[in-house]
Amino acid sequence: MLSWLLFSCCCFTSLSIALPSAAPLIFQYNFSDASFDQANLRFEGDAFFNGHVINLSRDTANGSLDYSQGRMTYNQRVLLWDSSTGEITNFTTSFTFAIFQGTIDHHNGDGLAFFLSPYPSQLHRRSAGGCLGLIPNCNTLNTTIESGTVAVEFDSFKNHWDPSNNHFGIDVNTINSTIYKNFTSRINTGIKITCTISYDGRAKLLRVLVYSKDNPEFGNYSLAKGIDLRSFLPSEVTVGFSAATGSAVELHQILNWYFHSTLQPPNTSSSKSLKLKLELGIGLSFGAFIVFVMALVFLIWWNMAAKRGIGMSNVPYKEMEIDDELEKGIGPKRFQYEELLVATKNFKEEKLGQGAFGSVYKGFLSCLNIHVAIKRLSRYSNQGIKEYKSEVKIVSRLRHRNLVQLVGWCHYYQDLLLVYEYMPNGSLDTHLYSAKSILKWPVRYQIALGLGSALLYLHREWDQCVVHRDIKPSNIMLDSSFNAKLGDFGLARLINHGGMQTTLPAGTIGYLAPECFITGKTSTESDVYSFGIVLLEIASGRRPIMPEAEPGRIRLVHWVWELYGNNVILEAADEKLGGDFETQQMECLIVVGLWCTHPNPDVRPCIRKALNVLQFESPLPALPSKMPVPIFAPPMDLVSPNGASQGIEL
Asked: Which chain regions cross the lipid bilayer (predicted)?
């Protein structure tokens, strides 16, 4: 059956070669970059590249500023929708522009626009002034333009059809905006303004977001309009910028430009070649269809087998599954991608951290007036997708004072984003192991209690039992009052209360319970082990494994247990504290840490018992003077044929 599947893949590979296909189109220009290449750009009228920006209208070095008009466009056709299938693109474009006031003895005007029009598109001779270089003779207000034009305009001069001399709007086949918004700050003062325009083909929604990264006092502005672009534009369009002046003058500049579309026209050498490819594709399609049906039967069997534990499964990302999971949650808000672009200043500044499957950025959400931490995962990472789905499924429903709260979420093209409350004091590890920061003892003990409270909620107090599987100082965040908040639920799993799950070992070396390596079982006991390691770290200021340390002090648990057996347990206290700690609390924290890291999971306390001791509601446990040898039940494949299981000693 596998050979049939491979044959099917070959057939469809041949089919994809034979038939023209639409692929994503992405380009990006930073016009101040010395490596900028003008090859794919077209300049018309007075537009030109001055060496570091694009001038859309004349500057003083090139003559009078009045009655100037110019365009810069991408000189390749852009596929807006597929005429054979009716599929319409999703696109996003982002650009930064600046408008400078003209001479003192002139009024300022008229403005610039980003536009889409039929390919190829040409600048009209009589489109200066309020026409913005878009359409000719715009004084014939509301006249439908045969060729079609859809634009987002930035207007700085009030013609008789304009709402004001300082607005932006969406234009459809006319220079009179069908929807607009006034700016509260002037747009022609030379400040750098960024605009992000996105079109959702499925929702038939055009969104516009305008802001200034360098001048936040400029404000954030947005527009949205429902529109089926297929009704106004042909399948192939030109995209670009246009600007104009009249008797009122100013300078219009484009500083950078990014464009991403989900469709791109195929490259064809000739119509004859295309016809041949189509005939070949049609000939292959019938045979390939038969093979495809057979392969589909195999894939269905394979998927069912994987669910029964036979073989492997690789479940792809499905947007609607993510939607469903999040919509079940109470509280998290779905953000527009453009909102998160503004919040993080285009994901270019204030990166808080970098992980294996993505990054975390600091941002400010003006709509909620709060700072947030935005976790950005790659959709192209299978493990990243699994972590995203895990956090979506679990964190969106959890509510506890010692858990980092999920504020919202967004998935957009290749990005998967989770928005969390911002923790101004960072993570616990940055304070434990920083020479510049020394956590006082009362703060440390309070952090230990807070972490225990979070685990109690996850293990016992919520509807289902949540096993975190990656408890460590870098996942323990500290708010403005240094209260502990457990975060990063990418590896978390839901299990029945009192149950366990058999998986591949997941977590961080040094914090993984010994049984996870042998049995593959994840349980609340393995979380308690990680909790114990963190308690010992808080007390000692030492990492769980220190290869550079002297023999006997490399592994934290072994070293502290030896001190316990010699009745000198307080020697494990962090030297940076200088003896400034409450002795009873220090002893309690270390002993509970050892209790939780007992090699045998059956001897470890549940989190409730551990927390009771930390709160001095129960006495300290009596532990062996020497660290015990771990013994646990074997995994199923090590059970003897007669059904008796043999213990495993490490």
From this structure: 280-302
**Is 580 among the catalytic positions?**
no
Q: How far apart are CA 149 and CA 62, in angstroms?
A: 29
Helix axes 524-540, 583-596, angle to 10 degrees: 150
pTM of the model: 0.57
Q: Write down the residue that tokens 């018309």 correspond to.
A: 44
Do 319-421 and 25-261 fall under one CATH topology? no
- Tell me the pairing of strands 111-118 and 150-155: antiparallel
CA–CA distance, 454 with 452 (Å, rounded to integer): 5
Within 10 A of 50 (CB to CB), how many other CB atoms are there?
12
Query: Of residues 470, 488, 527, 574, which has the active-site annotation?
Result: 470
| Residues ≥6 apart with Cβ < 8 Å to 358 | 375, 376, 377, 378, 381, 384, 416
CA–CA gap between residue 446 and residue 89 (Å, rounded): 53
**Residues paired with residue 241 on neighbouring β-strands, in sequence order:** 72, 114
**Residue-by-residue DSSP string for 255-302:** EEEEEEES--PPP-S-HHHHHHHHHHHHHHHHHHHHHHHHHHHHHHHH
User: How far, in Å, CA of 370 to CA of 363, rounded?
Assistant: 9
Q: Which residues contact 371 (CB under 8 A, 6 or more apart)?
A: 362, 363, 364, 365, 422, 424
Note the pLDDT tens digit of each residue in 504-523.
456 688 898 888 877 767 78
Q: What is the SS3 assignment for 27?
A: strand
Q: Is 641 exposed, middle or buried (0-12, 13-18, 19+ CB in 10 A)?
A: exposed
58 has a pLDDT exceeding 70: yes
Section 532-556 average pLDDT: 93
Task: Give the end-to-end CA distance of the chain in Å, rounded to a whole number.
Answer: 43
Structure confidence at residue 178 as a pLDDT band (50, 70, 90): confident
- Binding-site positions read 375
Total length of the chain: 650
Superfamily of domain 428-638: Transferase(Phosphotransferase) domain 1 (1.10.510.10)
Mean pLDDT of all residues in 72-92: 90
Extract the annotated binding site for ATP: 375
Whether the CB-CB separation of 645 and 483 falls below 8 Å is answered with no
* Alpha carbon separation from 131 to 118, 125, 151, 158, 176 (Å, rounded): 18, 11, 12, 12, 10
CATH topology for 25-261 is Jelly Rolls (2.60.120)
Per-residue b or e along 237-269, where b marks 16 or more CB atoms closer than 10 Å to that residue's CB? bbbbbbbbbbebbbbbbbbbbbbbbbbbbeeee
pLDDT-derived band at 22 (thresholds 50, 70, 90) equals very low
Alpha carbon distance 220, 169 (integer Å): 14
Q: Which tops the pLDDT comparison, 593 or 119?
A: 593
The pLDDT-based confidence of 42 (bands split at 50, 70, 90) is very high
The encoded tokens of residue 506 equal 């997941």
Highest average pLDDT, of 22-36, 392-406, 590-604, comes from 590-604
